[in-house]
Amino acid sequence: MAQTPRLHLLYSCPFCWKVRGLIEHLDLDVEMVGVNGMKIRKEVAFAGDWGKVPVFTDEHGGHHVDSTPLLRHLDATYNEGRLANTGDPARQNTWMDWVDSHMSKATVPILYGSLGSALKTTTRISKLEKFGFLSKRLYAWAGFPVMWGFIARKRVKKDGRKPKQLWHDLLTEFTDAHDGQPFFGGEGPDLVDFAAFGYMRSVSPFPQFSQLEDHAAGMAWYRRMEASLA
After folding, report:
1. pLDDT single digits (tens) 14-38
2. Which of 51, 30, 67, 55 has the alpha carbon at shortest distance from 201?
3. Model's pTM, two decimal places?
4. Which domains does the chain have, with CATH numbers?
């Protein structure tokens, strides 16, 4: 018997945002299931040893993991592969790799690149996600020095650019690749657009998103992507 598909996710996860955007664009009836941020591996153990989110469970009970393969699966299964078949496949694959290797790594510096930013981010996440009473406070107040001290600072130092400049450079490179079209996919978005949109959208619940809003071309594309979800 068919069941309503489910997406197990963290509401602040960049990889989950990628998949959510495509689900909204395709207007799929999917139940969003938030997992406990401190018990992810346990709560998605039903999908095998993946131990991460997002996890998509289809109407037949099959489990699908990993955000980029998930984008391709959703497009192929519920959209006849139209987004994957937009334009040149080699160009799309090259830029999907670029988005996954560059934009994904830019989310941590912008959200945790300073001590103040890290505190704002972990506090906000503790309100967005499903935490127990104690774990909510533990994450908010113990998580930010870990993210700032051991992860974000290392990435910022290695790259050499301030987080805002990094994002602006990436948005410039990405929108320049649109070749004057509204989207990377041309007149309409393709899978690369949804991957990039997901990473950028994952910053939107946080105050640091204001640092991206003065990139004119990037925000114009972002607003067009938002409109495509209606």
Report:
1. 999 999 999 999 999 999 998 887 7
2. 67
3. 0.90
4. 6-78 (3.40.30.10), 89-224 (1.20.1050.10)
